[in-house]
Amino acid sequence: MPSTDLLLVRPPAAPGPALGRLPPLGLLYVAAAARDAGHRVALIDAQAEDLGWRALVARCRALRPSVIGFTGFSPTFPEIERACRALRPWTETIVVGGPHVSGHADEVLQRNPDIAALVIGEAEGSIAPLLEWLQGGSRGAPPRGVATRDHPTRRRARVQDLDRLPRPARDLLDPARYRYGPATRPGLATLMSSRGCPHRCTFCDKAVTGARRRLHRPARVLDELQEIADRGAGYAVFFDDDFTAERDRALAIAEGILQRGIDLHFKCEARPDGVDRGLLRSLRRAGCRTVALGVESRWRRSLEVLGKDLDPALVPEAFRLCREEGLDTVAYVLVGIPGEDPGDALATAAFCRDIGATWVQFSTLSPYAGTALHRDAVRRGWLAYTDVLNPADAERRRPTLLAPPWTEARLRRTLWRCHATFYGHPRSLVRAIRATRYGGSVRGRAAAAAAMGSWMVREGVAGLRAR
Fold this sequence. Notes:
By secondary structure, the protein is α/β, with parallel strands linked by helices. It folds into two domains: about 5-145, Cobalamin-binding domain (Rossmann fold), CATH 3.40.50; about 175-465, pyruvate-formate lyase- activating enzyme. It is about 40% helix and about 15% strand. The protein is built from 16 helices and 16 strands. The chain has helices spanning about 25-35, 55-65, 75-85, 100-105, 105-110, 125-135, 220-230, 245-260, 275-285, 300-305, 315-325, 340-355, 370-380, 410-425, 425-435, 440-465; strands at about 5-10, 40-45, 65-70, 95, 115-120, 145, 190, 195, 215, 235-240, 265-270, 290-295, 330-335, 360-365, 385, 400. The strands form four sheets. A six-stranded mixed sheet has the order 2-1-3-4-5-6, sandwiched between helices. Strands 7-10-11-12-13-14 form a six-stranded parallel sheet. The chain has a two-stranded antiparallel sheet with strand order 8-9. Helix 3 links the parallel strand 3 and strand 4. It is globular, with a radius of gyration of 22 Å.
């Protein structure tokens, strides 16, 4: 008899630099829901435990799980496919959920004979019925939100009342094993205070959480933050698409942190047009140390292509306010936007440097299936798989939008030049180094710095040779 009903696995990362490692929040939600229904659950995070493939297989063989579950985004899905092949001999059934399968269900089932079922949408309400259905011999149609080869479905499971969910099973992980560059304290945890995003960005994935905003009550969020602090984490990362979208609610959470005396630093995400001095000051007093802001591009025409509904003139003010209130900032920037050329992308990098961003995350434009930009790219023949990645990416290849005048070589060179434009400036480099204090162990930070330096040298040499 299997010793574990459900084993949740995050497989080893693809070879390459790893500048951060965050707890797998989705797996923790699924684990809590399955345990709440009485199932025996275990979790292996091969990345946090530094397990290679042989060690992972040995651990799974020892546990003898009835079901192994995975979740993942499109960029890292090749590692999940490899894990399915490697672990299939040591389990009765493999199930997979997450954004990738919610957007590519038919393709995933056709490509992967080792996968028995997919969870479409949010898995918390489907996992217990799915396990019971499997234990009953898979008779009849599967539960709502579950797709199999015999019973394909497009019915997405969605949790209507977030406060009815059990809190993520954080006891299954050690917060000390995780690291993140912006963290201002050791010990890391993740959480979500809301799900869904009403904004109309043409590249953003909503396959799982949808467009309608669903909110935890502030009291529930505060309970989670207290639990995180009690478990030894010093820094929390909110995964909300827009933490400050409901200003009064964000203020209530900040005030509750102070009233309860929760000793925790945290990072949240916001829109540049959704912050003001009073809000930022309250968040800072409550423990917020980093705000991530979606800049994408300095050019209005590019933001219109992306459906951002953002006036770029408001961006410098948002970064100025964050800086004056003592908050570090992350600017998200996309490279390869249709209608831009390399000069436009480099101007955005210089713009982020000039407005005083602490870090910039430069990413190639990889629209998710089901988005307007993905449909347009497929229709125009602009979508191609490339290995043009920034040094923080964990995957080997990703679907990349290559609209004229972009080519793979030009995109690779421009991505490197954007990093050099921003991080090559002494002021930006000093600001980023100063802010990266507790992004893991000293050894981990040194490894991350070496990975970034190696990537910069390697890509720079490759660019020179290509001239």
